[in-house]
Write a structure and sequence with these properties.
Largest sheet: 4 strands, antiparallel
CATH topology of the largest domain: Dna Ligase, domain 1
Distance between the termini: 27 Å
Number of strands: 7
Structural class: alpha/beta
Number of helices: 11
Order of helices and strands: EHEHEHHHHHEHEEHHEH
Strand content: 15-25%
CATH superfamily of the largest domain: DNA polymerase, Y-family, little finger domain
Helix content: 25-40%
CATH architecture of the largest domain: 2-Layer Sandwich
Number of domains: 2
Strand order of the largest sheet: 4-7-5-6
Oligomer: single chain
Shape: globular
Radius of gyration: 26 Å
Length: 325
């Protein structure tokens, strides 16, 4: 099944005639079901999507231009406000306390009041429900991520600070490789760990700590040292059995747009340590070499078990599926 959602004012005159016909043609030519939703804005396209799912007779194709204002009001009245894009559970509870329960109630709010009470995104949603485009289409997805995370569950519980130091060191180096792969630098590092929700042998606990970096960097040594400095904050008491942990990089920016003064640069910056590690790991394996506790000859005993991992037939040449005629 293919989904197509469009919210654009430029093509509105042709929706009424082309939407159902183009949907049927796609089914006929490609042999698969196409769910097409048209609306003058992205928020109204979401409303149409809800209607398509609830009405099988529409055959997956619908545009909002076929309804008059009174009909649209009744449709919006039937949709809970929390079903809309950008209205999370916390915002939904706050709106409910203000007697705003449906998409129609939200549409009838004053946009400026919505911005003052909530944020600019809520103002945009109100305007979009009125048919005014405020959230542009992303025809080309962003090439870089705004944050990078490396997190895993453990095959055995970790209760020792020394083992957690090894975990955080290894995770910091692996997420730094992702940082260099997208050509970015980070200015902020966070580490967290938590117990398993079903583990009755320990007190439920989660801990997190973060640190700002003096200058944006992608150096694995600098990031590993910063992550290891957070270890004491992850073990406030003895006896905690951690089940998973992670390292998060935020405040990302393009590497070619940052030129810090030499006075503030780390002693390891400019030596190409990260690039050398990446080249070796690409040639051999992803964990062939590392820095400090991250440079392990054999996988640690706490690493996630992967004996039953599915074959990566879409991303790894060595694991392609073979079909015999």
């Amino acid at each position: 099944m293919t989904n197509l959602s469009l919210g654009s004012e430029a093509h509105q005159p042709s929706w009424s005639g082309s939407a159902p016909r183009s949907g049927r043609q796609f089914v006929d030519s490609q042999g698969c079901r196409c769910v097409s939703r048209w609306g003058p804005t992205k928020s109204l396209a979401k409303v149409v999507a809800i209607g398509v799912k609830k009405t099988p007779a529409m055959n997956g194709v619908l545009h909002v231009g076929r309804y008059c204002e009174e009909q649209m009001s009744r449709i919006l009245e039937s949709i809970p406000v929390t079903d809309l894009w950008g209205v999370a559970g916390r915002s939904g509870k706050k709106l409910a306390a203000m007697n705003v329960h449906s998409a129609r109630d939200l549409r009838d709010l004053d946009p400026k009041w919505a911005r003052k009470t909530f944020n600019v995104n809520m103002e945009r949603i109100v305007l979009e429900l009125c048919g005014i485009p405020c959230i542009p289409l992303e025809l080309i997805p962003p090439t870089t991520k705004e944050q990078l995370i490396f997190s895993r569950s453990f095959s055995k519980k970790i209760t020792d600070a020394r083992e957690m130091e090894q975990v955080i060191s290894l995770y910091a180096q692996r997420v730094s490789a992702r940082l260099r792969a997208q050509g970015s630098l980070t200015g902020h590092l966070s580490a967290w760990a938590m117990t398993g929700w079903a583990d009755t042998g320990t007190v439920a606990h989660s801990a997190g700590a973060s640190v700002g970096l003096p200058t944006p960097t992608d150096d694995p040594i600098t990031l590993t040292k910063a992550a290891r400095a957070l270890i004491p904050k992850l073990f406030p008491t003895e006896g905690i059995r951690y089940a998973l942990a992670g390292v998060v990089l935020t405040d990302l920016r393009q590497a070619d747009g940052v030129q810090p003064l030499d006075l503030f640069r780390s002693e390891f910056e400019g030596r190409g340590v990260g690039q050398a590690l990446d080249a070796i790991n690409r040639k051999f394996t992803t964990t062939a070499i590392g820095v400090g506790l991250g440079g392990l000859k054999a996988p640690p005993g706490w690493e996630m078990k992967r004996e039953l991992l599915s074959r990566r037939c879409l991303t790894n040449w060595d694991e392609l599926l073979v079909a015999a005629a």
